[in-house]
Amino acid sequence: MRFIGITGGIGAGKSEILGYIEKHYKCEIYLADQVAHLVKQPGTKAYRELVELLGQEVLAGDGSIDKAAMAGRIFARPDLLERVNDIIHPAVKEYLMERLEDARAKGRTELFFVEAALLIEGGYLALVDEMWYIYADESVRRERLGRTRGYSQDKITQIMSRQLTEDHFRKYCDFVIDNSGNLEDSFAQVDRKLADYVRRT
After folding, report:
1. Beta strands in 25-117 (DSSP E)
2. CA distances from 130 to 23, 120, 123, 175 (A)
3. What is the CA radius of gyration of the chain?
4. Which pTM does this prediction carry?
5. Could you tell me the CA-to-CA distances from 112 to 20, 31, 65, 117, 122 in Å, in that order?
6. By the 8 A CB rule, do 125 and 133 touch?
7. Among 110, 129, 111, 109, which residue's Cα sits nearest to residue 119?
8. 3-state SS of the chain: helix, strand, coil percent to 5?
């Protein structure tokens, strides 16, 4: 079983690529943002540590951590951000490693994917078998984000400025999918790469 990281800048089309893989291959796919939400649920170690760090005021009426309240607390105290990340990021890795070992033990999964924009910065290069970079021209990404999310060009520029450059992504990734054109071409790139490992269903 191959453990593959999927990364790339905002608007590159990671979700579309993963949707295709999920449909056509025996795989498990985890989105780091969704896992980060799971590990903050009441009863988890991360939940207890976050409440201890941030205080009861970040809790919603049902006892869960209110995302907006947590963001407001961090905005008021920027020094808390690193400490919050030091709680969440290890918890996400631990969750993924448990799922990976479970998948290997059951033997029904041929491919195990984790997706996040920050995989490289998060130290996943040491964990995955290979890292894939979903690339798209900046002009294409800007058009997509404006059309599908309604983002202004200023907002897009601000987000992109906080992400890794194309050169940095290419330096650390083992495989690049050019998703600048039509999706059928991108899917063909995926099929050619995965033909080395598994059969398409």
Report:
1. 27-31, 111-115
2. 21, 11, 13, 8
3. 18
4. 0.90
5. 14, 11, 29, 17, 18
6. no
7. 129
8. 55, 15, 30
Among all chains, which residue has been given the structure tokens 């030091």?
A: 86
Show the tokens assigned to 169: 């992504």
List CB contacts of 9: < 8 A, sequence separation 6 or more: 117, 136, 141, 160, 163, 164, 166, 169
Structure tokens at 46: 């991360």
Given CA atoms 186, 29, 1, 96 in this order, what sign does their dihedral have?
Answer: positive
User: Which H, E and C letters describe 24-44, residue by residue?
Assistant: HCCEEEEEHHHHHHHCCCCCC
Give, for all 201 residues of the chain, the pLDDT tens digit: 999 999 999 999 999 999 999 999 999 999 999 999 999 999 999 999 999 999 999 999 999 999 999 999 998 888 899 999 999 999 999 999 999 999 999 998 999 999 998 899 999 999 999 999 999 999 999 999 999 999 999 999 999 999 999 999 999 999 999 999 999 999 999 999 999 888 776
189 CB-near residues (< 8 Å, 6+ apart): 177, 178
* Sheet of strand 2-7: strand arrangement: 27-31, 111-115, 2-7, 130-135, 175-178
Instruction: Give the integer Cα–Cα distance in Å for 169 and 113.
Output: 17
